[in-house]
Amino acid sequence: MEKREKGRVLQTDSQGFSGSLQGPENAQAASGANPQNQSGLFLTKPDDLVLLVTGGGKRHLLRLQSRRLFHSNLGKVQHDELIGLPYGTTVYSHLGHAMLLLEPSLDDRITRIKRNTQIIFPKDAAMIVRRLSLRAGSRVIEAGTGSGGLTIALAWSVAPDGRVFSYEVREDHYRVAQANLEKMGLLSYVELRNASILDGFEQSDVDALVLDLRTPWLFLEQAREALRPGGFFAALVPTTNQVSELLKGLESFAFADINVEEILVRSYKPVPDRLRPDDSMVGHTVFLTSARPIVDAEQPGRWLSESRKRYQARKIMEERIAQEEAKRDTASGRLNMDRPRLP
User: With bands split at pLDDT 50, 70 and 90, how would you rate the model's confidence at 38?
Assistant: First the structure.
């Protein structure tokens, strides 16, 4: 059983005795990232990033600090009243409105940051992490950082032993990304650079590299020099003509295993008796192009896709046919010139 008391949820046993699940003073004494009480529940502690879900599905991200206050249109909640509670607990504002205390997901961390640029959507970030084959301990380069949305996903994937090296040429974007990463507790896994990549990257033999730039095909030479042979490459562009330029560049710089993908995710309304798609969805955002740098000095083109090889063969055949037709037309013209004009 449970009852409310000034924003706290109190547990009552079968005999009606009540007591706090864990007070702030005990939470502060708990050690480790996920302290547990005797029931095995994971408890919040000071400096944790938590999520409060209110009525209507509104989501609020906050970092727990003693003696601080959370304000919303549904009322106020003391941070101290949230410290020491298990995730999944329902708490109440001073006005009596229910709020659900949850651990924030990666989606929450990406979408609820301060932004001065368009951020990568979580659906795209998940596929990028997959295509870059990131895991704990990976070393990955990102250029440009923007507001740090993708950087959060990269750091989340390579922690605790990996490293993200992120380059951003604009100082205002760099400062926003730095603040966002610090707020999410991920800055320790990222080395931010406020610098251009025209002269290349400081790192070499990295496991993966992603270009979130308007003209990624202009930086493929720098990308090859930074990547280890057989490493993982990805680039993000919004239009098909940009993808075409990128594909030409990848072939020129001996990349193989090339893929182009558009990621679409459609949510459904979670109503068991009336399951149907949501009325709206996030449609096209970017095209994700992934590839691998290879070492094949003799014939790198042999590793292109079969569809690309067939297209190349067809173009070569069309050129030969055009040349033969031009020769015949020329020869026919000469023959006509040698014959006398009919009266």
Answer: low
Amino acid at 120: I
Q: Are 83 and 27 in contact (CB under 8 A)?
A: yes
Tens-digit pLDDT profile for residues 310-335: 887 888 888 888 888 888 877 776 65
Amino acid at 152: I
Say whether the peptide bond before residue 160 is cis (omega within 30 degrees of 0): yes
Evaluate the omega torsion of the peptide bond into residue 144 and state whether it is cis, within 30 degrees of 0: yes
Give the count of beta carbons closer than 10 Å to the beta carbon of residue 65: 13
Q: How many CA atoms lie within 13 A of 138 on its CB side?
A: 23
Average pLDDT value for the chain:
86
Helix (H), strand (E) at residue 29: helix 24-29
Under DSSP, the state recorded for 273 is G
Reference 184, options 146, 154, 142; nearest CA is 154
Which one, of 225, 326, 304, lies nearest residue 257 by Cα?
304
- The structure's pTM equals 0.78
- Spatial distance between the Cα atoms of 36 and 30, rounded to a whole number of angstroms: 8
Residue corresponding to tokens 């990349």: 255
- pLDDT digits 0-9 by tens, 49-61: 999 999 888 999 9
Region of residue 293 (left: phi > 0; alpha: psi -120 to 50; beta: else): beta
Helix axes 122-131, 149-158, angle to 10 degrees: 40
Asked if residues 211 and 190 have their Cβ atoms less than 8 Å apart, the reply is no
Q: Does domain 2-104 have CATH number 3.20.20.240?
A: no
DSSP-based three-state secondary structure for 137: coil
> Which tens digit of pLDDT belongs to each residue from 296-312?
866 777 887 788 888 87
Lowest mean pLDDT among 86-100, 149-163, 314-328: 314-328
- 3-class SS at 17? coil
Look up the CATH superfamily of 108-303: Vaccinia Virus protein VP39 (3.40.50.150)
d(CA 18, CA 41): 18
